[in-house]
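Could you join me in thinking about how sequence relates to backbone shape in a protein? To get us started, please write out a protein record for me. Would you write everything just below, so we can both look at the same thing?
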Amino acid sequence: MMAAAALAVSIHAGPVRVERFRPQPGPQEIALSSSADIVILGGANGGGKTWGLLFEPLRHVKNPEFGAVIFRRESPQITNQGGLWDESGKLYPGYREGGKAPAPNQVTLSWTFPSGARVRFSHLQHTKDRFSWDGSQIPLIGFDQLESFEEIQFWFLLSRNRSTCGVKPYVRATCNPVPDDDPVGGWLHRLVSWWIDEETGYARPDRAGVIRWFLRRNEELHWGATRAEVRARFPDADPDDVKSLTFVPAKLSDNPKLTEKDPGYHGWLMSLPLVERERRLAGNWKIKATKGKVFNREWFKSILSAVPADVTSWVRYWDKAGTEGGGKFSAGVLVGKRANGRTVLANVVRGQWSALNRETIIKQTAESDRARFGNVEIWTEQEPGSGGKESAEATVRMLAGFAVHSDRVTGDKVTRAGPLAAQVEAGNIDLLSPLGEPAAGTQVSALEAFLVEAQNFDGAGVCDQIDAASGAFNKVHGGPAPARMVNRFTGEAI
C-alpha cells in the first residue's frame, strides 16, 4: 500500500488560500492506495471514478520526466461539457510548484506542469488507432470507461506502459458494468469476474481491492493469489512477466460529497429504465436487456377508449421495411404529449408492404392523421448507408406540405428505447384501444400485438413497433434527455 501522505495534494484555490485534497474514504481511497499494476475502479455511476483517475498523476508531477496519458474511446467524450478536459481544468490549475501553475494546451489536450511533467488526454476511436502509440513510453496509462474499449486496444497499450523516469509503470482505469456477451466490453466482464458474484451480478464486498496475480500464456490468463503461486506453476517465466490486478467497486452511495452537493442525482438514476438502473445505480454486471426487463406488459396499466382532450402535440414516427408479404414489418406509431405530463400511444399502422405500397400507406396515413388530429409532425427513420438516405429523402419529398423530417438514428435499439421504457415502468403511458387494425394476415388485435412485442423486446428480435414508438416518444418530448453532467471534483451539477 502507498503511504497515506502520498494521497494528499495541496491545491491553491485562490490567491492566498491553500487546501489539501485527498480521496474520500472507501473505494476512492482504496483504489488510489493500491500497489497493483492494474487497478480498475467502477461498477456504477456517481462513485467518484473520474476524479480518482485525474487525481492519480498528481503524485508524480514533480518528476520532470514523468508522463501520463488518459484515454477515452472517442475524442468528443474528452472535450464534451463535464468531460475529462473540463474536469481537469477544475483540478489541475490549483496545483502550484514554486508559485507556478501547470499550463494547459487545448490543441494537444495536455497539461505541462512546472517541472516539465505532462498529462495528456487522447482517444482510440478505431481499432487501428492503437498503432499510433507504437514506440511510446508511458509511465502511467489511464482508461476512462474501460468497457468502451476493445480488448486488443487495452492489451496493446499495456505494451507501451514503460518508464525510464524512476516511476514504476502502472495502469489505472474506470468502468461501468457490462454483460459478458457485450460485443465491445464483454472481455472486461470476464477479466473482473472473480470480483463479481456469479449469482447476483453484484460486486463481492469481501473481494473489493483484493489483489490477484496473472501471467499470460498462449492467449490465456493464468491467475493466482500471489506472485509466488503463479511463478510456481510457470518456473520458466520471468518474474516481471507476472502482473497484478485488482477491481474496486464504487457506487453513488460511496460518494457523499456528490450526494451532499446534488441530492437530486439519485433521482435521475432512479428514473432510468430497469436494465440501465440496475447497471448504473446498483452496479449489476449480469443484468441484460432480455424479454420482460426492458418492457413488461404489466407496466401498461392505463388503457383508454377515447383520445384524451388534453394532447398538446402529436408525432407519427415511421420505422420502414421494404419487403411485401414477408420479412420485416414497417410500422408507424402515433404518440401524443398530454398537458398533464402523461403520454398517449394512440395508433399503430403496421404491415409487410413493398416499397411502393408502403409509401402509399404513409401518405394516406398522413392525410388521415391531419383530418383527425390536426397538426401531426411526421418523422421517418433514416437507415445507415446511401440506400437508407435515399429512401428517407423520397418519403420527405412525397409528403411535401406536411411537417415531415428524416431521423438519422444513432446508438443501439435498447438505448433508444430507454426513455420510453422508463416512463412505461413508471406508469406514465396511456394506450388507446383498439390502437389500430390487425396486421394483414393475422387475427391478433393491434393492441395485443403491440403488448406482445413490448414484452419480448430485447433489441435483437422483432421490434418495428417499439422502434417506431420510441422514436415518436423521443421526438414528441424533444429528443432523449441529455446526459446529466456532474463535476466529480466538487460534486456539483453542471
The domain at 297-476 is CATH 3.30.420.320 (Nucleotidyltransferase; domain 5). Residues 1-6, 480-494 have pLDDT under 50 and may be disordered. Residues 142 and 381 are 38 Å apart (CA to CA). The chain has 15 helices and 19 strands.
